[in-house]
Design a protein that fits this description.
This protein has 3 helices and 9 strands; from the N terminus they run E-H-E-H-E-H-E-E-E-E-E-E. The protein is of the alpha+beta class and 111 residues long. Strand 5 (70-74) and strand 6 form a beta hairpin. The strands form 3 sheets. The protein has a 4-stranded antiparallel β-sheet with strand order 1-4-8-9. Strands 3-6-5 form a 3-stranded antiparallel β-sheet. A two-stranded antiparallel ribbon has the order 2-7. 22% of the residues lie in helices and 38% in strands.
Length: 111
């Protein structure tokens, strides 16, 4: 099973459950949902965009179950990131985990 990872607010993910589809704000703003290829990449994103922030969770997305198109594209730094071009179907999310913050203010993924 090939996975990618999406970082979102717990409330936003819970709100999407009844509809069967999740749309991050970036889908309307940029045309795609940002994801990470692995947990280390996701943690770098969390540190840069959400320093010390709580209420976040990690969605493990199974590529075989994903219904929207996926593209791997470079960021401004040149690092490659997966982007979902459409809504994320809830059935593609095979695991949900809280993104925790340790006493030093660094994020880590709870198992």
């Amino acid at each position: 099973m090939a996975l990618i990872f999406h970082l979102t607010y717990k409330d936003a993910w819970e709100d999407a459950q009844p509809t069967g589809e999740y749309a991050a704000p970036s889908l309307a703003e940029e045309g795609f949902i940002h994801c990470s290829k692995d947990i280390p990449q996701l943690l770098k994103v969390a540190a840069r965009l959400y320093p010390g922030e709580t209420g976040l969770m990690v969605l493990d997305v199974d590529l075989d179950k994903l219904t929207a198109p996926l593209k791997s594209e470079p960021s401004r730094s040149g690092e490659m990131y997966p982007h979902i071009y459409g809504r994320l179907n809830v059935g593609a999310v095979v695991r949900e985990r809280p993104l925790m913050v340790n006493s030093e203010g660094q994020h880590y993924v709870a198992d």
